[in-house]
UniProtKB/TrEMBL annotation:
Pfam families: Metallophos. Residues 66-300 form the Calcineurin-like phosphoesterase domain. The chain crosses the membrane at residues 12-35, 352-368. It comes from Habropoda laboriosa. This is Metallophosphoesterase 1.
Length: 383
């Protein structure tokens, strides 16, 4: 009878282990598909068409773009191995699931790729780059671009030519870059190069921005004075992509599901630290006249409008280490129109609750079955 009881306990224990494995597979794999399949590409609103763009310039297939920020891959100093493993798996699973389900044409990661980039040795930085491209690998027909963040190369006052250049070389990310696809122009900018003090990084950035603006204006006006080499094939107002938000006093103006918690919303931003300076923000608006601005850095979501028709979206950190409910931005673009919408990732606290409830239920099941077997054994013994 003892052997029968032992066999019964092992049987119930095996059932519990299998159930726990099923919960693990659901939470760490299937949950991402269940949540992210609910995201959809936004629909273009025909009432928002820019009528100044010629109809002949809008025949291209719309561009589907995905935007994330602040992945903060942990380093050797501040990252515990389990924390690193968990966060990187979450980001890998969410990113690859999005790419598989929604197949974006182009993906932008808006700074702070690494948590300890500025303090890393050359060898550590090379490993960082390898990990990044392993986690955020994309199909051949999908383009991936990044911009620098302060955790990648440091705030303005600590950036050296070496720190800047190794990021530029390793991630193929110059301080200013224009990515043009199907008549849409994305201008990627290193926020730390917008200090306006004429530094080794700032002056070339300013020159490059003015050059891009001249190209766009030349293409729009098709003036005889324009050099033909400077004319790009199509014109549309550009989309600015950078790490820092444009100047704002705080997150108090924000009203999003993924906004900053109430206890920190009204903390004042420091110019050039939590956001661009007011002067740099105005200069960007004057020089490029963008139709949209997308950035990160604060780790929380925000939406605001500049000069009546220029929307700015600040997207939260993509790492669950910094945000319980991360999100990303999906955008559909044509030269004369665009539409964006948020896509929310699985909520980590919900995932933890699923684990806790499942483990408790499995434990209760095991106890009930074992007690039932024990009572049955006692009754047989009595008879």
């Amino acid at each position: 009878m003892l052997n029968t009881r032992t066999f019964s306990y092992r049987k119930h224990l095996s059932v519990g282990v299998i159930a726990l494995m099923c919960v693990f597979i659901f939470c760490e794999y299937l949950l991402y598909y269940l949540v992210l399949i609910q995201c959809t590409w936004p629909t273009l609103d025909t009432h928002k068409v820019d009528i100044t763009i010629a109809e002949s310039m809008t025949e291209e297939t719309p561009v589907h773009a995905m935007f994330i920020a602040d992945t903060h891959l942990l380093g050797s100093k501040n990252g515990h191995w389990f924390d690193k493993l968990k966060r990187e798996w979450q980001m890998y699973r969410a990113f690859q699931t999005m790419v598989t389900l929604h197949k974006p044409d182009i993906i932008f990661i808006l700074g702070d790729l690494f948590d300890e980039g500025q303090w890393s040795s050359s060898a550590e930085f090379e490993k960082y780059i390898q990990r990044f491209y392993s986690l955020f690998s994309v199909p051949k027909n999908t383009h991936l671009y990044v911009v620098a963040g302060n955790h990648d190369i440091g705030f303005h006052y600590v950036i050296t030519p070496y720190l800047n250049q190794r990021f530029v070389n390793g991630l193929k990310s110059p301080s200013v870059r224009r990515v043009s696809i199907r008549g849409n122009h994305f201008v990627l900018i290193n926020s730390m190069a917008l200090e306006g003090d004429g530094c080794f990084l700032c002056r070339p950035t300013e020159i490059a921005l003015n050059k891009i603006a001249a190209h766009l204006k030349c293409a729009k006006n098709t003036e005889n004075s324009c050099n033909k080499d400077n004319v790009i094939s199509r014109y549309s107002r550009p989309i600015i992509l950078q790490h820092y938000p444009m100047y704002r006093e705080s997150d108090e103006i924000c009203n999003e599901l993924d906004q900053a918690p109430d206890e920190i919303k009204d903390i004042k931003f420091r110019e050039r630290w939590e956001c661009l300076s007011k002067e740099a923000s105005e200069q960007l608006l004057d020089i490029l006249n963008p139709r949209l601005i997308i950035n990160g850095h604060t780790h929380h979501g925000c939406r605001r409008i500049h000069r009546k028709d220029i929307f700015e979206f600040t997207i939260p950190s993509f790492s669950w280490r910094n945000k319980d409910n991360p999100s990303l931005l999906l955008g559909v673009f044509t030269p004369n129109n665009y539409s964006v919408s948020k896509c929310y990732m699985p909520v980590e606290s919900t995932q933890i609750k699923i684990y806790i409830i499942s483990i408790v239920c499995i434990f209760i099941y095991f106890i009930i079955k074992c007690k039932a077997k024990q009572n049955r054994y006692c009754l047989l013994k009595f008879h």
